[in-house]
Amino acid sequence: MDRMNPVTTVTGTAYPWGAKNVDTDVIIPAHWLKTVTREGLGRGAFETVRAQPGNLFDDERFAGSPILIAGDNFGCGSSREHAAWALGDMGITAVIAPSFSDIFSGNAFKNGIVPVVLPQEAVDRLLEVARTDPITVDLETMTVTTPFQDRFEFALDPFRRQCLMEGLDEVGLTLARDTAISNYEAGVMQHRPWMAGERANAGIAVEGTGRT
Amino acid sequence: MASRPLTLYEKIWNAHVVEQRPDGTSLLYIDRHLIHEVTSPQAFASLRAAGRRVRRPDLTLAVPDHNLPTTARMDAAGRRLPIADPESAQQLAALAANTAEFGIRYIDEVAPEQGIVHVVGPEQGFTLPGTTLVCGDSHTSAHGALGALAFGIGTSEVEHVFATQTLLLKQSRTMEVRVDGTLGFGVSPKDVILAIIGRIGAAGGTGYVIEYTGEVIRAMSLEGRLTVANMSIEGGARAGLIAPDETTFAYLKGRPMALAGEDWDQALAWWRTLPSDPGARYDHTVMLHADEIAPSLTWGTSPEDVVPITGKVPDPDGFADPSKREAARKSLDYMGLTPGTAMQDVPVEHVFIGSCTNSRIEDLRAAAAVANGRRVPDSVRAMVVPGSGLVKRQAEAEGLDRIFTAAGFEWREPGCSMCLAMNPDKVPAGERCASTSNRNFVGRQGPGARTHLVSPAMAAAAAVTGRLADVRELMGSQSQ
Ligand code: SF4
User: Fold this and answer.
1) Which of A105, B78, B194, B272 yields a CA-CA distance of 20 to 30 A from A83?
2) Looking at per-residue confidence, does A161 or A79 come out higher?
3) Which residues are listed for [4Fe-4S] cluster binding in this entry (chain B) (predicted)?
4) A75 — alpha (psi -120 to 50), left (phi > 0) or beta?
């Protein structure tokens, strides 16, 4: 059950955006969320930005770029994984920014998109380079490089890096820990039986509790 | 046995570790899983494709909210009315079908308990202190008000919880946000959390779990605490915690899904051990005093753009940070505001009282107290959307609906409504809304919509004056 394509390097043009606090409502507006599949969301990606003439995402020089460069706190706001699906659908496999929201970066990993954290100075330099030249994100060496000898090292959680590079299915990996999970549940049954579920979730009482 | 003093967060975390891994991540057990129609269909589809089942359907609860129109759901004869938007209808039908297939309890759209997931969880007693609770929705942080470690997750994680009842997580850093003193006249929990976010910034809590402490939090009702914890995510923190105390226990006792009898007594004994130990260390502490907090609102398109209602639209040139200056310029352009304008001189066309931040009974009471005997001008469309069917009934029993409708507010069915532009309730482009919701992002309430986040009382004040108004000037002066 590998859902993800393995990612080892990402090379190509990059959208030199640099915007801070890009929230997931900007990445994919809510009205695109009424889908029951993961596909086709690229069409709605950055819809409000694209409504502006001369925007970066409709600039031919950057069409189909696999990399996006942004500012602090990329992907803040709503937890919608649709944001990662939309980026993936428009062909983005790496986002470079000084920081990411926790939820977005988790969603990115799980969809084969590398969130690369670099200091602001490095991001500023890459924004400059990306206007004219390609950029390479390499998971093997954990570096971002440019044709001009720039070389910026970044860090990734080792497990997440492995999942990305091998395209692993996290659910499958955890299911293999079934015994540990069952043991934990048995422990709860013994020590905090009230939390175990069956009884706690006994029923929804409807009638006039009058308490809201 | 002398052990290191622990924080509330550490105690809950420790009680849920299934396995610790050498790389510092842990497999954490999840006690409660809330789902809704928007972030679950793809998770169910993946489960089905892989031939997997939901490990603990009994720990999972489903409620539709985001998509649901807030107009009547049944006709006079009690027949269900169809949902006009075909995509919304499809998503809602998928939730009903998926929950039936996988054996998950489903509160459907005509059930009296239906409402916004984050209102329903606490109200039903599904949310309990010391539990881990997740939902595919970032405002899951709200449940931390009851001392549950609660946070939003993405759809892949929803699938992970379905299949394994666990999540793979790294422990967060802890931030104490301490608010001491006594809140002034007209200052509400919403103003407290707006002030906190104004202070720490929209990314200030990234990587942290916040614990709210201090006299102001202790004195707050559970409803108020839910408002505060709800917006933790707007400060970048995935979760916000408030230690359970007598207020929490009194709120929970007797709720349908909360515990009873001996279970309750045993749970209570454990819950009382949860608050952070004296001397427990946080990675970071932020202190605010109640005297610094006035009725507040946002002026821009980030929840950190907070000013007191007596303040003015800021001048972008006043920001030292160049990127902040640029962001402020863009925000003001989008918001259609001129630097130096008094906030109270800004007219509004819409008022929205609702959302998981402020749609509980106390919120509606606070708004009704201001609306009582006043009138919404024709220039304003104002709506009140209770957070759940039970809140709605309670409000109707108290006559709040009649106060609102007499003043010219719309009184609607529970759901997310105008908090996000996913159902028919939207703010038209270029129009301005005083909203009790939690996000003032570009396009959040509709493409081009301009949002000012406020408390319920401030929203009611805006509705009856037709502008952003200082609720203190309207309080205690209306005809009874
Ligand atoms: S009310 Fe708004 S913030 Fe709350 S769950 Fe619904 S859409 Fe999300």
Assistant:
1) B194
2) A161
3) 356, 416, 419
4) left
B8-170+246-270 architecture in CATH?
Answer: 2-Layer Sandwich (3.30)
Place of tokens 């919880």: B161
Tens digits of per-residue pLDDT, A90-99?
999 999 999 9
- Residue A169 is predicted with a pLDDT of 85
Please report the DSSP string for chain A in residue order: ---SPP-SEEEE-EEE---SS-BHHHHS-GGGGG-SSSTTGGGGTTHHHHTSTT-GGG-GGGTT-SEEE--SSBTBS---THHHHHHHHTT--EEEES-B-HHHHHHHHHTT-EEEE--HHHHHHHHHHHTTS-EEEETTTTEEE-TTS-EEE----HHHHHHHHHT--HHHHHHTTHHHHHHHHHHHHHH-GGGSSTTTT-----S-----
Domain boundaries, chain B: 8-170+246-270, 173-238+276-292, 300-476
Per residue in B273-290, pLDDT (tens digit) is 999 999 999 999 999 999
Residue nearest atom 2 in ligand 1 by C-alpha distance: B419
Most distant CA atoms of chain B, gap in Å: 69
- Judge if ipTM > 0.90: yes
Q: What is the mean pLDDT of residues A75-82?
A: 91
User: Is the CB–ligand 1 distance for residue B470 below 6 Å?
Assistant: no
- E strands, B215-335, in order: 239-241, 284-289, 296-298, 306-308
What confidence tens digit (pLDDT) does each residue in A98-111 have? 999 988 999 999 99
Q: Which of B58, B164, B258 sits opposite A175 (nearest CB)?
A: B164
Residue A208 pLDDT grade (very low, low, confident, very high; cuts 50, 70, 90): very low
User: Full-prediction pTM beyond 0.90?
Assistant: yes
Asked if domains B173-238+276-292 and B300-476 share a fold, the reply is no
Identify the weakest region by mean pLDDT among A116-125, A198-207, B100-109. A198-207
B419 is in an annotated binding site: yes
With a cut of 70, list the residues of chain B below it in pLDDT. Answer: 1-2, 476-480
> Which amino acid, one-letter code, is at B192?
V
Q: How far apart are CA B32 and CA B43, in angstroms?
A: 17
* CB pair distance less than 8 Å for A48 and B442: yes
Q: CA-to-CA distance for A85 and A113, rounded, in angstroms?
A: 9
Structure confidence at residue B220 (pLDDT): 98
Residue that is written with structure tokens 């942080």 in the block: B141
- Contacts for B406 with CB less than 8 Å, ≥ 6 apart: none
Tokens 């931030």 correspond to: B175
Is B137 a pocket residue for ligand 1 (Cβ < 6 Å)?
Answer: yes
Q: Which residues pair with B177 in a beta bridge?
A: B212, B286
Instruction: Check if CATH label 3.40.1060.10 holds for domain B173-238+276-292.
Output: yes
Least confident residue range of A22-26, A203-207, B225-229:
A203-207
Query: Closest Cα of chain B to A62: distance in Å?
Result: 23
Going by C-alpha positions, the residue among B450, B436, B468, B464 that lies closest to residue B378 is B464
Is B103 touching A (CB cutoff 8 A)? no
Å from CA of B210 to ligand 1 middle = 20
Average per-residue pLDDT in chain A? 90
Q: What pLDDT score does A212 carry?
A: 58
Q: Give the closest of A21, A23, A170 to B168, CB-based.
A: A170
Distance of CA B323 to the CA centre of its chain: 29
Using alpha carbons, select from B294, B295, B293 the residue that is nearest to residue B468. Answer: B295
**Domain spanning B300-476: which superfamily?**
Aconitase, domain 3 (3.30.499.10)
Q: Which of A3, A32, A36 to mutate to test the interface with B (most CBs of B within 10 A)?
A: A36
